[in-house]
Structures are given as C-alpha cells and as structure tokens.
Amino acid sequence: MILAALADALGLLLAGDATLWGIIGLSLSVSLAASGIAALVGVPAGAALAVVRFPGRRGVVVAVNALLGLPPVVVGLALYLLLSRAGPLGGLGLLFTPAAMVLAQAVLATPVVRALAHRAAAGAWAALGDELQMDGAGRLRAVPVLLRTVPGGVLTAVLAGFGRTVSEVGAILVVGGNIAGHTRTMTTAVALETARGNLPFALALGVVLLGISLGVNAVAFAVARGGR
Amino acid sequence: MLLALMLVLPVQARAQSRFITVASTTSTEQSGLFAHLLPAFTQATGIGVRVVAVGTGQALKLGERGDADVVLVHDRAAELRFVAAGWGVGRREVMHNDFVLIGPQSDPAGVMGGRDTVEAFHRVAAARAPFITRGDDSGTNAAELRFWRDAGIDPKTAGGGWYRDIGGGMVAALNAAAGMGAYTLSDRGTWLAFANRADLTIVVEGDLQLFNQYGAMLVNPARHPSVKAAEGQAFIDWLVSPDGRAVIAGYRVGGEQVFFPEGGG
After folding, report:
1. Digit-coded pLDDT (tens) for A30-71
2. Which of A214, B227, B239, B255 could form a disulfide with B221 if both were Cys (CB 3.0 to 4.6 A apart)?
3. pLDDT of residue B214
4. pLDDT, tens digit (0-9, with 9 covering 90-100), for B34-70
C-alpha cells in the first residue's frame, strides 16, 4: 500500500497535473506566509520572555505555553465567528480566502515558534548573560545579539512553525472552506479524497505533502549551513 | 515577511474577479456534480463559483450569517423554514434523485430487495443490525430521522450499540458502513461515485418515500447587503434554464444519470 502510494505520488507529480500543482502552490504559499508571520512574532517574543524579568513572568510563561495545545478546529471556529459576515470583522470579506487561512495558521504556529525560541534564547542567556551584564529593560537590547549566537535554535523554531502550518487541516477547513481552485490545500484535499473513499489517491497526496515538507527542511538547512 | 507577501499576493490575484459563493451539500460536491456543472456555468456567464460543501444544516447556517450568496441543499422542510424566516428568497426546485438504503451483502436484517423503507428500518432495528447515521444535521440525516419517526422507533434510546453516530459526511458514513458491515441511508449520487464499497450493496430502492429533492435559494440581500444578488440569481436562473437542465441531466457516473432536473431533461 505504501509503496503503491509512493509510485502513485511520483506519477501524479510527473503527470504535471495543473490542479495538483495549484494545490501544492497554495499549500506552500499559505504555510510559508503563516510561518513567516509566526517567526516574526514568535522569535522576538520568545527570546524577550526568556531574558526579561518582571513580576508575574512565570504566569505569563505558563499561559503562553498552554497555547501550544490550541486545538486547530477551535481556532478555526473562533476566526470563523470573527470573519463571518455576521461577525465583527465581516466587513473585510476575508472568510473563505487564502488570507483567512494564513491568519488561522499564524495563530497556531506562533506559540510553537515562541516556545522553541524561548528555549534557545534561555540557553544562550545562561551562557552569555554574565558577559552581556544588563538588567531591567536593557536586557531587551541583548535579544538580537543572543539570537545571533544560536542560529540553529532559531531555525529549528521557525521550521517547527512551518511543520505546524503545512500539516494543519482543522482550522483552514473551517475558515477556508476547502473551495476547489481557491482554498483547497494539500491537507484539505487529502481530507476530501479520504471522505470520497479515494483512499489510494488520498495517500498519494499525503506522500507528496511529506515530500514537500522534507524539501523545505532540506533547503532551510542547506541555506543555514551556507550562511555560517 | 516580504517573502511571505510575495508568495501570498499572486495567490490572491489569481482569484476570479466576478464570483459567487455557494453553500451546498457534500452529496453534490462528492458525487462530482459540481466539477461537471460549474465550468459550463462559468463559461456561459463569466461568473466563477466557489462551493463550500457542508451538510444541509450548516449550509443554511452559512446563508443565515451571510457567508454565502446562494444555498443549494436538500431538505425541503428546512428550506421552507429558511425562506419563511426571511433568510432566503426565490426558492427554486432544481433537481432530484433518490435515496437508497445501503447494506452488507450478508444482509443480517433480511431487507434485501424490499421496496418499503419504513418496513426495512423496522427490521434493522428488530435485528439490532449495525446502522450508521450521519448525525450531522444534513439533508440525508434529516431524511433518515423521518424514516425512524415513521417507523415509530427512537434508535438513539434503543440501546445495544447498533445505532452508530459518526457525525460526518456521506462518504465518511459509507466508509464506516463498509468497515463495519452496517446499513446506512445514502443519496444515489454519492453511492454511485463511492469507490471503497467493500461488500456493500443497495438493499432497498424505488420507494416513493426515497425521493430526494434539491432546492436553490438566494440569500436575502435585504438581510445581508454583501450578497451578490445579481450574480447569485443568474446562477439559480441558469440551473433551471434549458441549458442548465441539460448539463445536470448529462452528468453520468459509470454510465448512470445521477441527478434529474425538475421539468424534465
């Protein structure tokens, strides 16, 4: 079954099916955009939270760590209620668009990126904090320096964010609507083909998705290595 | 971030400038009808159609909240309520097909070949044969619950674990039935397009009570100004036009006609 799926997946890609490539393109662009936003928010936030000391910090850390367990379908539902025409942001007309999917996935990926960036920064702070010797708000200025000492940790955080987005289905199904040619991604297509009983085709799509994830990770590591 | 924007913008730009959003049912989407129908409509009018395929109950809810321009579903009673409450206007009966009772070849309830659906439901309950219900407030789910009511049986309180609620779409229910050797009610279109049949087969069909009609409504623009009334109405008008009827009638799965337009075709 798995071998057949591998062969089917290769066949699908080589056949150059425009619909499939469209779906792959949308999956990649939505996930990259969402993990990009998550990185921009999550990396600085995680590092800042690792070095700055303030009353109630422990409680904040526990709270943001709890966001790691956000159920995607609940995020999707909350965003649906916000973006629905009858909701407070309905006027934007974002429901059932790729932008809504980017938003949903960014919400899901940011806590992952933040938690891992926090960890990397905390380690670096333990090693270098004395050297940097700053306190209070001054510690914030150490964040960019700290992060530059742990490029591997930051990369891992960003890739974990990408992993969360590219594999996600529950939230984007609700806010994207799985509309053919518009908001259908790899994961929602797999869900649909499974629902249709096209199990071999669904599995082949899954293999393609895995390949994409592998490719993105390989490129990221190659770039990181080259940049060092 | 720039990279992210560069990647998202072309995705947005690719979207068709004139389009409507149609909330419809899993049966129309999963049977493959829309893939056959929509290109013909778009070619004729230049209007793109984005279909959100959910259960009938959820599709009506999307209309109620103004998240769709047109609703195309199959639960006459719920549709009439939707119109009466002022959420939808201009309801048209578009097409029909029929429901079929699906079950395993082994037929533990002994209903094979019958034409009386209520009688078949009686026998399934008496035999405590596994039965899959969609449980998702879809049009098919509503029809199934009507049969139980007509049979005077409340399967949810019957006990014994034979009545199984999967809370999912039509093919999810068929997949579950295939996996468990269970009975389930399906629309014929989805059944014909269903690939993973295992040893399932049609056990009851041809009962007049199994009639399954699809109606289309425009979401009331007076309630939701964002509704694209002209384009949405054009879609409904096209569905019931001779052209639209011919395209609906022309959809075949394995050589069989799946949907029958109202007014012949």
Report:
1. 999 999 999 999 999 999 999 888 899 999 999 999 999 999
2. B227
3. 95
4. 999 999 999 999 999 999 999 899 999 999 999 999 9
Between chains, do B194 and A98 touch, taking CB under 8 Å as contact? no
Q: Model's pTM, two decimal places?
A: 0.84
Residue B1 lies in a domain: no
What's the number of domains chain B is made of? 2
Residues B60, B112, single domain; the answer is no
Distance from CA of A37 to the nearest CA of B (A): 7
Residue B6 lies in a domain: no
CB contact under 8 A, A25 and B50: no
Look at residue B6 and tell me whether its pLDDT is greater than 80. no
- Domain boundary (B188, B210, B232) is at B210
Could you please report the per-residue DSSP string of chain B? -HHHHHHHHHHHHHS-SSEEEEEEEHHHHHTTHHHHHHHHHHHHHS-EEEEEEE-HHHHHHHHHTT--SEEEE--HHHHHHHHHTTSEEEEEEEEEEEEEEEEETT-TT--TTB--HHHHHHHHHHHT--EEE--S--HHHHHHHHHHHHHT--HHHH-SS-EEE--S-HHHHHHHHHHHT-EEEEEHHHHHH----TTEEEEE---GGGEEEEEEEEE-TTT-TTS-HHHHHHHHHHHTSHHHHHHHHT-EETTEE--EETT--
Chain A residue with minimum CA distance to B65: A86
B229-265: per-residue pLDDT in tens? Answer: 999 999 999 999 999 999 999 999 888 899 999 975 5
Please give the residue range of the domain that contains residue B81: 16-97+213-261
Chain B contacts of A99, Cβ < 8 Å?
A: 8, 12
Nearest-Cα distance to chain A for B152, in Å, is: 32
- Whether B217 and B199 map to the same domain: the answer is no
Residues of A in contact with B51 (CB under 8 A): 179-180
Q: Is residue B33 part of a domain?
A: yes
The verdict on B121 and B28 lying in the same domain is: no
- The interface residues of chain B toward chain A in range 27-46, judged by CB-CB distance below 8 A, are 30, 34-35
Task: Let me know if residue B4 belongs to a domain.
Answer: no
CATH of the domain at B70: 3.40.190.10
Same-domain check for residues B200 and B224:
no
Domains, chain A, in order of start with CATH, read 2-227 (1.10.3720.10)
Average per-residue pLDDT for chain A: 89
Q: Does A220 touch chain B (CB under 8 A)?
A: no
Same domain, B120 and B180: yes
Of A96, A102, A194, nearest to B21 by CB-CB distance is: A96
